[in-house]
Design a protein that fits this description.
This protein has 176 residues and is an alpha+beta fold. The protein contains eight helices and four strands, in the order αααααβααβββα. It has helices at residues 2-8, 26-38, 46-57, 62-72, 76-83, 105-109, 112-123, 165-175, and strands spanning 97-102, 136-141, 153-155, 158-160. The structure holds FE2/S2 (inorganic) cluster.
Length: 176
């Protein structure tokens, strides 16, 4: 029965967790302490701490997950279920520029698919992939709250709106 589930359940993703636990500098530990002090319940600090671990390690790697579980006194699965829910938390290495194309209703009606295809063709990667030089990652995400200026995408923390293929080229050219 479990073998059957392994093959038919698309959500089944075995993850190997090593014993290694991430370590951080005293400055980063102090930053984490400051966040923990803000919340009456420790687990409420899970997202700010995830961002710190991701910033320090490039992505939320298994040692980083182990660290969070220890620090927040949670199970590995508690950390993992939050990490895999949010598109801004990366559980695998991500490019220096992360292009997140909104694919929800307004953007979709106004050409999001064309924008994604244009990015794919130009960069030679599909959504979910990273260029071999590690420069760009491409993702499709749900509504980014900028529906009035659809279609749009986010690159790292910047929004780019009212996109056309020509505008995408200009933006990517400016990144270099
Ligand atoms: S539908 Fe794209 S930002 Fe809301």
């Amino acid at each position: 029965m479990s073998d059957q589930l392994t093959t038919i359940d698309p959500l089944y993703q075995p993850v190997t967790m090593p014993d290694e636990v991430a370590e951080f500098s005293p400055e980063v530990e102090a930053e984490i302490d400051r966040h923990l002090a803000k919340y009456p319940v420790m687990r409420s600090a899970i997202l700010p701490l995830m961002f710190i671990v991701q910033r320090e390690r490039g992505y939320l790697d298994p040692p980083g997950v182990n660290y969070l579980a220890r620090r927040l006194k949670l199970r590995i699965t508690d950390i993992w279920e939050v990490a895999t829910f949010y598109s801004m938390i990366h559980t695998k290495p991500i490019g220096r520029y992360h292009i997140q194309v909104c694919r929800t209703l307004s953007c979709r009606l106004l050409g999001a698919q064309k924008i994604t295809e244009h990015c794919s063709t130009r960069l030679g990667i599909k959504p979910g992939e990273t260029t071999p030089d590690g420069k760009f990652s491409l993702s499709e995400v749900e509504c980014l709250g900028s529906c009035g200026t659809a279609p749009m995408f986010q690159i790292n923390f910047d929004y780019h709106e009212n996109l056309t293929p020509q505008k995408v080229d200009q933006i990517l050219d400016s990144i270099g």
